[in-house]
Structures are given as structure tokens and as C-alpha cells.
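Pasting as-is:
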Amino acid sequence: MGVRLDVGRMMLALGAALAVGSAVAVTGSIGFVGLIVPHLLRPLIGARPSGLLLPSALGGAALTLAADILVRLTPASTEIKLGVAMAALGGPFFLALLISMRRKLA
């Protein structure tokens, strides 16, 4: 009825990316961990939420600990906050995820 489907899908994907970015901006690095880790573990564990819960919790703890250690190892003159490090990790991850999902839909 006059709406181009490909443009609508792109606008929907852009809106979803903006919504996720806004949610992460409000919740901080913990929200990013909750979004990243299940996507990383799903190919290894499977898509069942019940089987993904415990590995996601452990993976999230490991990811946060690793990011915190990396932040603490930076020189004192260039102190980086944990939220900034997680955003630097999560931003490219979600961009790659968005591109791969777009390729699957095409």
C-alpha cells in the first residue's frame, strides 16, 4: 500500500539499534554485558533460554572481570572507566551483529 518493505525493515533495524543504545546508555556496562554475552554463547550452547541462563551469568561475570582488569592495567594518566571500555567493546559487536542479521534477511 505504498510502503517499501526494504525501507521499512531498515528503519525498524535502525530504531531497534537506537533503542538498544539508549537502554545501554541508561543502564551502563552491566546492561551491555547482559546483551552481549547471550549472543556470544548462543552458537555454543544452543537457543534454549533455560540452557543459556547459567552460562550467560558466568560468561557475563568473566567478561566484566576481564574488562575491569584491562581498565586497571591502563596507565594512571589515561584512566578509562569500565563503562567506556564496555561500550568500546559492545558498540562494534552490535554493529557486526546488525550487519550479519541484515545479510541473513536479504
